[in-house]
Every structure is written in C-alpha cells, then in structure tokens.
Amino acid sequence: MPFPNATFDRIVTKNVLEYVPDVDASLRGLKRTLKPGGRIHIVDSDWGFVIVEPWGKATVDRFFAAAAPAFREPHIGRKLPAALARAGYRDIEVRLQPIVDRDGRLQLVLRNMQQYIRTFATLPEEEVSGLLRDVEAAIKDGTYFACLPQFLVTATSP
Asked: Which residues have CB under 8 Å from 90's CB, separation 6+?
C-alpha cells in the first residue's frame, strides 16, 4: 500500500477481501497504515450462509460453489476474526447484518453469480437459467425468500 505508516484513523473495506490473493498480507498492510488505536471496519460476505427459496440448501450450495472460482476466499466472513488476530489486531468485534429479500432485490447478486458460472463453465447454462426462472416465478407468486448475511467485523490496531 503506497501510504506512510500510521496515516489513517479508520479504514473501511466492503466486499474486497473475498477477492484478494493473500488476506493475511493485506490485513498486515492495512494495519501498518493505521495509527495506534485506529480502527478497521470490514464488511464482507460468506457465500456459504446464503438462503434462496425456492431452491433449498443443496441447490444454493451447488450454485454458489459453481461461482466460487471468482473469489479467492468465498467464505471470508467466517474467517475474518482469526485473520485479524493473526495480523495482530485487538478488540475484534463481529456482527452479522442480514440482507433479507422478499421482492427480488438480491436477484442482481444471483445474476452476477450467473456470469461467474458462465465464465468458469462450472454448471450447464440451461440449468442456471432454469434456476433463475424459478426465482422469477417465486417472486411473482410470493414464495420467494432470500437472505445474504453481511459480516461486519471491526478491530483496533495496537
């Protein structure tokens, strides 16, 4: 990171660390730029905790596993507290903020995952398209429900 040591009072990242090749090195680099007592706030997903109805758990797991090659760490949310501890942070706090969707807002996330699946050719296109049609039908008939938990992890630089 091209910043001097102890530059920032606060650092905020959102949906970043799931993509970086070395989370531990990134967290150490961010800590270097924090002033003593500075706070880091990380918001990130964990694709293993997503709910999509009408699919059910097995289909959700299969769908997100097929999109997983797009991420360096698709389950970063659950791993952040330990990674922050390894990097030397203290006062680590974890909260979950669920994004609950009953009207189709998270459909954009599903379409984004469809693009990843298409790019990596990890599921047949007709299967993925059928799953998204099932979501559209469930939205129309009122049976759709989705939840994407966001991990909100905060820690202090010593």
From this structure: 155, 156, 158
d(CA 38, CA 28): 13
Task: Give dist(CA 27, CA 41) in Å, integer.
Answer: 11
Measured distance CA(74)–CA(52) in Å, rounded:
17
For 3-46, the pLDDT digits (tens) are: 999 999 999 999 999 999 999 999 999 999 999 999 999 999 99
Q: Residues 92-149: pLDDT tens digits?
A: 999 999 999 999 999 999 999 999 999 999 999 999 999 999 999 999 999 999 999 9
Give the Cα separation of 114 and 132 in Å (integer). 9
- Give CA angle at 120 (116, 124), nearest 5°: 90
**Alpha helix (H) residue ranges in 2-144:** 23-33, 57-67, 76-86, 107-120, 125-141
- Report the alpha-carbon distance of residue 40 to residue 151 in Å, rounded: 13
Place of tokens 């791993």: 79
Tokens 């009408």 label which residue?
54
Write down all domains in the chain, each with its CATH number in brackets.
8-156 (3.40.50.150)
